[in-house]
Amino acid sequence: MNPVALRLLNQQLICPQFDHPAEVVSYMGAMQAQEYRMMRWGVAMRTKKPSASTFKEAFDSGQIIRLHLMRGTWQLVSSESYWPFIELCAPKAIAVTKGWMNSNKISIPEDEVLEIRKILAKIAADKGSATKEDFVQALTEKGLDMDEHRLSYHIRLAELSGTICSGDLLPMKATYALTASKIKTQAKMSRDDALTLFARKYFQSRQPATLEDFVWWSGLNVNDCRRGIALLGDFIHKESWKGREFYLIANGRTHGFRKGKCLLIPPYDEYLISYKSRDIVLPPDHRHKAHNNSGIFQPVIAHDGIICGNWTPFREGHQAEFFLAEHKADIEEEWQRYRGFLADDSHKNRTFAAVLN
After folding, report:
1. Whether pTM exceeds 0.85
2. Would you kindly state where each structural domain of the chain is located, as residue ranges?
3. Count of CB atoms within 10 A of residue 87's CB?
4. Checking DSSP bridges between strand 306-311 and strand 73-78, what pairing results, if any?
5. Model confidence over 194-203: pLDDT tens digits?
């Protein structure tokens, strides 16, 4: 087993199989979207022809949704996965959110949660795509002044209730829409069916991966993760590699690895954040070059799947710094692919300037 090659293939980072960003997000299940600008490249680089305008169209039309779903952080999900994943993940996500509220000595009674949720929903419905500033103004007009921290918790709880979701994609600022106007309702899925779907999407796109990796990524408890794996039955199997047991699925990609490929990987990308143990592709001595202990991730370069350097996305010309001399390579081809992604935007003058500044 070559876990590096398998991860590159199944994460769609080499020889991508999909034409459209929404297909990528659906296949991946959920994708980290912490960095509002760079999440677009994280999805698009997994398509055959990366396009910023195509990503925006998919986002604005509700095919791709951004919300706080797992681990208290931002993710992208597809519209068809939205409702089952909200049902599955929201209880744990709400518990995490309330834990943070307690640690920050913020108490929000249930009647306040419901009152503010109604206001946020109305503003989102009226505006179509509302910014946080729109929420602040509406609350102020009603005599409800609150600090940004408290409002952020209200927004997150409204997201996790399925009331509001992401609105239109702006260059630099998140917006919110009424979920009912953006995403079709679906027949409720059983918890086991949702867990099966969740586990299948994770392992099909991140294999080979361990149980510990799945627990870390999903934010669910270990018993739920074990059950999700068990529910996959013969669709999943174990293989050992260097003393560790990894899970793989029956129809995973195994052919297509191309040596010499350089990748410009955005911060918080699934290539690293999908796994609790990242040493397979990231030498432990250089871990600090990719992320710190507080969970801040940097843009990195991968050569033949090994994280070997850093790059600077928001500059006119490419800047690369390699910390593994044996993997130092020419990134010009990949840089041009990234520039082409930015330039292929129906609003390129406005958006391109925003991304580069």
Report:
1. yes
2. 191-249, 262-356
3. 16
4. unpaired
5. 999 999 999 9
